[in-house]
Amino acid sequence: MRLLWILVLALGPAFAGATPAAPSSASSPPVPGPLQTIPALDVPRYLGTWYEVARYPNRFQKQCVADVQAVYSALPEGRIEVRNRCRKADGTLDEAVGVARQVGDAQSPRLKVRFAPAWLSFIPWVWGDYWVVDLDEAYQLVAVSEPGRDYLWILSRTPHVDAQAYHALLHRLTRQGLDITRLVPTSQPSSRR
Asked: Quick check: 53 and 169 in contact, CB under 8 A?
C-alpha cells in the first residue's frame, strides 16, 4: 500500500508549458529549526481537487509520470478521504485511497494520513505526517511537508500556476530549511508539448 501516498497531494504545474526555475540565492539558507506550519487550516475550504505542481522524489510515487491529483472529501467524525491519482508510463491510471485526520483541534494544519487497511489503523507507523507549511489566503497554492523535511509537495487548484507566486513560495520554503533543488516538476496535461 502507498502509506504516504496522500502526501502526493501535491498536484499540477503548467506554468504555460514551462517550468519555472528555482530562485537563486547568494547566501546559504539558515540552519533550519523545527519546521513551522501555517497557523490554522480551514478544512472545508481545503477540500476538493488539487494538482501536483512539484514534489521531492519518493518511492511510493515512482510509478507516477504525469497527471498527479489529490481529491479530498469530508467523511464522518471529521475525517477526510484522500484519493490520489496519477498516470503511469503505460498510460494507465493509478489510484490510492486513504484517510486523513487532524492532529489537535479543528483548525490544526497538522494531519496524519493512512493508506493501509482500516484494521491496521491502531499501528502508529501506518500513519504519515501531512503538515501544511504554506498556503495562500485564497487556498489556491499549498506546500505540504513533514517534520523531518524528507517529503515536500507543492499543489495548486489548477494545472496553471503563476510563475511569480511559485517563485515567492519557493523563497518562503527555502527560509523554512526545505531544499528546493530537490523538487521535480510534475507533468500535467496542459504542461506537455
From this structure: no
Architecture in CATH of 5-191? Beta Barrel (2.40)
* In the chain, where the domains are located: 5-191
159 touches 188 (CB < 8 A): yes
The Cα 6–Cα 150 span in angstroms is 15
> Percentage of the chain surpassing pLDDT 90?
71
CA angle 84, 87, 93 (to 5 degrees): 75
C-alpha angle 26-131-19 in degrees, rounded to nearest 5: 45
- Sole residue written with cell 499540477: 12
pLDDT, one tens digit per residue, over 11-47 is: 232 222 333 334 444 454 555 789 999 999 999 999 9
Structure pTM? 0.81
What is the structure's pLDDT at 55?
A: 96
How would DSSP label each residue in the chain?
--TTGGGGG-B---GGGSPPPPPP-SSPPPPP-SPPPPS---HHHH-EEEEEEEE---GGGTT--EEEEEEEEE-GGG-EEEEEEEE-TTS-EEEEEEEEEESSSTT-SEEEEE-S-GGGTTSGGGEEEEEEEEE-TTS-EEEEE-TTS--EEEEESSS---HHHHHHHHHHHHHTT--GGG-EEPP-GGG--
